[in-house]
Amino acid sequence: RPMLPAVLNACDAARDAALERLFTFLRIPSISTDPAYAGEVKRCAEHIAADLAAIGLDVAVYPTEGHPMVVAKSRESHASGPHVLFYGHYDVQPVDPLDLWETDPFDPRIVERRDGTAKIVARGSSDDKGQVMTFVEACRAWIEATGKLPVPVTILLEGEEESGSPSLDGFFKAHGDVIAADFALVCDTSQWDAETPAIATTLRGLVGEEVTITCADKDLHSGSFGGAARNPIQLLAKILASLHDDDGRVTLPGFYDGVPEISDALRAMWDGLDFSESDFLGEVGLSIPAGETGRSVLEKIWARPTCEVNGITGGYTGKGFKTVLPSKASAKVSFRLVGTQDPLAIRKAFRAHVEAMLPADCKVEFHEHGASPATVLDVSGEGVSKARQALEEEWGRPAVLVGMGGSIPIVGAFKRRFGLDSVMVGYALDNDQIHSPNEKYELASFIKGTRSWARILGAYGNLS
Predict the structure, then answer these.
(1) Whose CA is closest to 280, among 102, 458, 394, 430?
(2) What number is the average pLDDT over the span 33-49?
(3) Cα–Cα distance, 238 to 421 (Å, whole number)
């Protein structure tokens, strides 16, 4: 007999109980970046572990040098494969500034709008507890309705995603075998809009560099030395300006090695999206696109590499005015990478570019801030194709294949360390205010997200 209708009915019947379970999860202030909340992070790990065990999964909580990792495994399934690994995180961002929250960030509430829609407001509601619980509730519905999950499932929940995942590599080295799977499911992503599901297929890589230029051996009086002594701020500004040409292209030799052009089919899909470049920029007070000439805004943020100056310091920056000629000037520069760009080659090219423009009597120091390549996921396999079909059945419109301008390091780690591709499906919206006051998650995202995961799991087991 068909199993999916019974599972979807179980999702709908458990809606109120599922919301209360989510609210209990949200009430725990699992702020991983603040040591003062270490006990709460541990309590949150134990709470979600107990909930997963109550469903009928085998659960282990692994201590790390930081916060615990929670791993849950299905005991039996209707089908032997594929084995899927679901990843999410139970830690949350700090709530500062607290005075901008309309209510207690750890007292979740539902706010109903005049148009009949509603949102869940709380820290972690979208990033990532609400997203995690869509999958957990889908698993609960399958087991309650049919006694088993449709395919073998492993769940990995991390407690340090919001603080840079410092314990993840050590966990992989010590316990990587416990998360063996055929591919991963990652929920820390967004829909295209409130009515249109999306699957993210690319993530840009990232190289971070901090450069400090020293000219004179001390700060100087600009009246006595100005015009004769080198000014490191001016020198640094000249170097930074030279990183782009007049068409917005990065000038580093070899920078575009490994940068692919998007396919005609993908370009047509993106061109067909209801996306307004003027509205996108207008929301942040801009009107004229920057970057590479001749490229669309979506292409620039999803499929093209970038070089951005993220901060500059030097000289006197306090109140009032001081006629100082500074000794040092610094800048933080980041590169977003696509395709097969080599992050180490980009770092080497940047440093060589700076050094080539440096006068003989000036010095430069570099400090690296991480380097990771872009991630391009396989969209031709059953993991994506079946997920797209299931999402379309739930939402009534095709799931869009999108790129992501940012990075999700765990996806690259799964690929490089374990050879796992990921299917990135999330139900957040761009206006969910993650990391900001009054973070929210649409009630529809939670309800239909749960039903979507139930459909996707059924599709993987050919039980839909």
Answers:
(1) 430
(2) 98
(3) 42
How many whole angstroms separate alpha carbon 326 and alpha carbon 216?
8
3-state helix, strand, coil in the chain (%, to 5): 35, 25, 40
Query: Which residues neighbour 251 within 8 Å (Cβ) at sequence distance 6 or greater?
Result: 242, 243, 244, 245, 353
E-strand ranges in 149-289 read 153-158, 183-186, 198-203, 205-214, 220-221
In this prediction, residue 158 carries a pLDDT of 97
- Angle 242-245-251 from CA coordinates, rounded to 5°: 65
Alpha carbon distances (Å) from 124 to 132, 245, 373, 441, 445: 10, 41, 28, 9, 14
CB 359 within 8 A of CB 235: yes
Local confidence band at 420 (pLDDT 50, 70, 90 cut-offs): very high
H or E element: which one contains 174? helix 168-175
- Give the relative orientation of helices 443-460 and 129-146 as an angle to the nearest 10 degrees: 50
What confidence tens digit (pLDDT) does each residue in 366-411 have? 999 988 899 888 888 899 999 999 999 999 999 999 998 887 889 9
Is the model's pLDDT at 140 over the cut of 90? Answer: yes
Angle formed at CA 50 by CA 429 and CA 133, multiple of 5 degrees: 15
- Mean pLDDT over the full length of the chain: 95
